[in-house]
Design goal:
By secondary structure, the chain is an alpha/beta fold. The protein is built from 10 helices and 9 strands. Strands 1, 2, 3, 4, 5, 6, 7, 8 and 9 form a 9-stranded mixed β-sheet that branches.
Length: about 325
Amino acid sequence: MSVVICVYTEDRWEDILAAVASVREQSRPALETLLVVDHNQALLDRLAREYKEAGDVRVLANAGPRGLSAGRNTGIAAAHGEVIAFLDDDAVAERDWLRHLAEGYADPRVMAVGGRTVPVWASGRRPVWFPEEFDWVVGCTYRGLPPGRVRVRNVLGGNASFRRIAFDAAGGFATGIGRDGDKRPLGCEETELCIRLTRAVPGAVLLIDDRAVIHHRVPAGREGFGYFRTRTYAEGLSKALVARSVGADKGLESERRYATRVLPAGVARGLRDAVLARPGGAGRAGAIVAGVLTAAGGYVVGSVRARRGGATFSVAPIEGESR
């Protein structure tokens, strides 16, 4: 298994070192760790010096356009492993992370395995108003996902792995959907890839195993309602692009269940907690409603832009050195 960590800023220097260290301490050793630097020469040079003597860490420049998707594609192309795992640059993996991911591939039908991402709040604890149903806003596993090792439509990009042959069949991550450094926090590139993959490989199985755990740092700037609103709006924009690409039936399949079952239950819990005078109950209920409305607004705007041709993305084949 190869591990790809995409990085873009020296502000996360200590986080990057911690992420790499957590990979190097795995109970099931990685074949290699690839650090892909997104158009930041100073960071590229600094990391190259840091890991100059490390035979298990390679530092690469993003060979494509700026952004997370192209960085991941660069890592995929350079990786030598039969399975390629992705870890966020501000996360650390538990010691058995790779072992649990690898176990899923005992079934040859399995093309992707993801894990559970736990938030580490900068303030030391979850904001009382922040609903667990919206932990995806900060890149973490959210309430509503089934426990255990289960089949899913898509894995979550910050804690995921794919067989190399999955990229041969479906191509890489689409550029134009996902994140680009500190710009608007778009997402859904892993959703689009997973849907494309299951179409390209009939019978492909995608799993999430909640024993494959990473801990993801949530900076103080993402604990506020302003970021919550921005991120949910951006998710709506991204979902519109995915639906435009793969069709609304498949592109919104999981979201319908989430919106009709998980979120109403979350509102009910919040209102119950408010009645029982528990901290944050009314705030959590209100945040769920606000998040739904904001995401819906982003989806409408994104749909209009997509129909007018103002929002596009592209998928390129992966051409790697390890062929």
